């Protein structure tokens, strides 16, 4: 499915009936051949914007998966890059992809809801992971990010403009979320993966409440919608001194 190197429909079904952690362990060898991997243009656009608002010394890729985001951070951070993920399978692929080229990069297995770090970073990024957290979990997640950033440090992530209700994408994503919610109501363990529960207004309010100041940067590489608003933004939340 997706490509000759990608997972089959049966493999995706087995993954979807597993826990999030085990599902990604199973998917890891073929993950980079699926649409779930953050596209290179998004990684490059975020890295370019971060270079403009830096400098940064030590970066953390939160829920790093197979390491594409951490690899992008090597173009931004001057001293070190760390990737953290709770899937051993995804981390194994990340180590294999990046180990020979970037000795500054390290990998840590850990849960984003209980990060095993002190205030060791001046940059934390995350790409495409927020759908794996329920809305009630996000304040705790943001609190963890706040705790590992040095004062003045930056938490950055891209956000796509939500599709309009008249677009096919809106109904496709809504349908996917509905199917996942039914699945989680009747099957255990749950597999949390929702596309429409991450609402920028709620996220901004929670980040500000926890102690971040927020800037939004349009990523011009992706153009604008009909009303002039950018299709993709980067959120840059600074930990207050």
TrEMBL record:
Gene3D superfamilies with a match to the protein in the record: Vaccinia Virus protein VP39
SUPFAM superfamilies, alphabetized: S-adenosyl-L-methionine-dependent methyltransferases
Enzyme Commission numbers on file: 2.1.-.-
Keywords carried by this UniProt record: Methyltransferase, Transferase
Domain Methyltransferase: 60-153
Example GO molecular function: methyltransferase activity
UniProt keyword Transferase, yes or no: yes
Xref: CDD domains: AdoMet_MTases (cd02440)
Domain of life: Bacteria
GO BP annotation list: methylation
Pfam families tied to this protein: Methyltransf_25
Coiled-coil intervals: none
Keyword Nuclease: no
Name this polypeptide is given: Class I SAM-dependent methyltransferase
């Amino acid at each position: 499915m997706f490509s000759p190197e990608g997972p089959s429909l049966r493999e995706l079904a087995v993954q979807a009936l597993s826990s999030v952690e085990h599902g990604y362990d199973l998917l890891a060898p073929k993950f980079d051949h699926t649409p779930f991997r953050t596209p290179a243009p998004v990684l490059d656009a975020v890295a370019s914007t971060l270079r403009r608002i830096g400098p940064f010394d030590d970066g953390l890729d939160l829920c790093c998966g197979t390491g594409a985001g951490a690899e992008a951070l090597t173009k931004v951070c001057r001293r070190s890059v760390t990737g953290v993920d709770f899937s051993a399978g995804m981390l194994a692929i990340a180590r294999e992809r990046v180990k020979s080229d970037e000795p500054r990069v390290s990998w840590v297995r850990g849960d984003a809801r209980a990060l095993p770090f002190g205030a060791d970073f001046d940059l934390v990024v995350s790409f495409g992971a927020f759908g794996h957290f329920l809305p009630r979990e996000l304040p705790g997640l943001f609190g963890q990010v706040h705790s590992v950033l040095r004062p003045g440090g930056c938490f950055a992530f891209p956000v796509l403009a939500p599709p309009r209700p008249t677009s096919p994408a809106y109904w496709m994503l809504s349908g996917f979320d509905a199917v996942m919610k039914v699945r989680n109501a009747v099957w255990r363990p749950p597999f949390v993966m929702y596309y429409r529960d991450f609402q920028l207004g709620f996220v901004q309010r929670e980040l500000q409440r926890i102690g971040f100041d927020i800037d939004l940067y349009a990523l011009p590489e992706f153009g604008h919608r009909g009303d002039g608003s950018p299709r993709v933004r980067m959120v840059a939340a600074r930990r207050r001194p």
